[in-house]
Amino acid sequence: MRYKVFGKTGLRVSEAALGTGTFGTAWGWGCTPAQASDLFRMYVDAGGNFFDCADGYQNGEAETILGDLIAYDRDEFIVSTKYTTAVGARSIAKTGNSRKAMMASIEGSLRRLQTDFVDIFWVHMPDLLTSTDEIMRGFEDVVSQGKARYIGMSDFPAWRVSRAITAAELRGTEPVSAIQIEYSLAERTADREFLPMAQAYGLATMIWSPLGGGTLSGKYRSKDAKGRQTEGGGPVRAIPESRQDEILDALDVVAADHGVTPAQIAIAWVCAKEPVGTSFIPVLGARTPEQLRDNLAALEIELDEKQLALLDKASAVELGFPHELMAQDLMKDLHTGGHWDKIVQPLLPRP
């Protein structure tokens, strides 16, 4: 296992995180504590130190199981958890992004994880009601109280992450260190705004569902994936029919070149797409030792330029306005007085 610096922080994390959405059986599927222990030990023995959790995973069971597993050497591990869904509670007061929900969630998570702090505390998803300012002021309290070391935003629109970063800069408070997004050969719309933003601000980028909910393994090639969920907890990404065969065929070709599975190539592709200026950290969501072993092996695969080009072409999405407009030669000519080809472009996008 290799290690990466977590965004602009000094935190060193393993190149892939272990997702713990499978730890527990409250959702009707998942791992018993003994099975979760096997996954934990395999990941740690491979050099892994980074665990991704949430208060709602398996209605709190995931945090409880993880807490038991890390208790023997808490400081050896990087633990992240999220708030918003309140251990699956059907409660109007306990759920959401409010400061009240945040404070109740972090206290509950710390109890279940048997720790005084989490390394990274995330807002799990926008509730479409709470302001970004309220979330950031709540984060300030959590960090100042020593209950979290770093903060991040998961599944938030890029414009709201940018606002949060700016608010923290103006107040001189704890900055947003990372984002969590869905990104895979089956879902590349993050190319439009999220990845340039992560580059510009130096954000660590955690990638959930790098297998498109299992779609990229090929097992749903001839099945209707709409509305299904994988045992890893993420939605099965239904690839548009116009692109599905092209993407899966490209995966098959590259997998055959390496003598590995399409799923392993899909993970290797995500790792290879890491932009300069940020760190991509895929979240591996295995339920069995066999699945985790295959996922870990994918980290050792290196794709050549020809293979990347084949996969990129098959999975590319339209960038839309204004990106495609500004990419036109005519526009480049207009805003540089005809000298675009003479400009030395900056390595990173500028916020």
Task: Give a summary of the structure in a few sentences.
The protein is an alpha/beta fold and 351 residues long. Helix content is 38%, strand content 14%. It has an eight-stranded parallel beta barrel with strand order 3-4-5-6-7-8-9-10, surrounded by six helices.
List key phrases describing it.
alpha/beta, TIM Barrel, eight-stranded parallel beta barrel, two-stranded antiparallel sheet, globular
Give the overall pLDDT as a whole number. Answer: 94
Just name the CATH architecture of the largest domain: Alpha-Beta Barrel
Contiguous low-pLDDT stretches (5 residues minimum) are: none
The rounded distance between the terminal residues' Cα atoms is 33 Å
Oligomeric status:
single chain
Instruction: Please name the fourth-level CATH homologous superfamily of the largest domain.
Output: NADP-dependent oxidoreductase domain
> Order of strands across the biggest sheet?
3-4-5-6-7-8-9-10
**Helix-strand pattern:** EEEHEHEHEHEHEHEHHEHHHH
Strand content: 5-15%
Shape: globular
What structural category arises from helix and sheet content? alpha/beta
Compute the number of structural domains: 2
Please bin the fraction of helical residues: 25-40%
Q: Could you name the CATH class of the largest domain?
A: Alpha Beta
Largest sheet: 8 strands, parallel, barrel
Q: How many whole angstroms does the radius of gyration measure?
A: 20 Å
Work out the helix count.
Answer: 12
Total strand count, please? 10
CATH topology of the largest domain: TIM Barrel
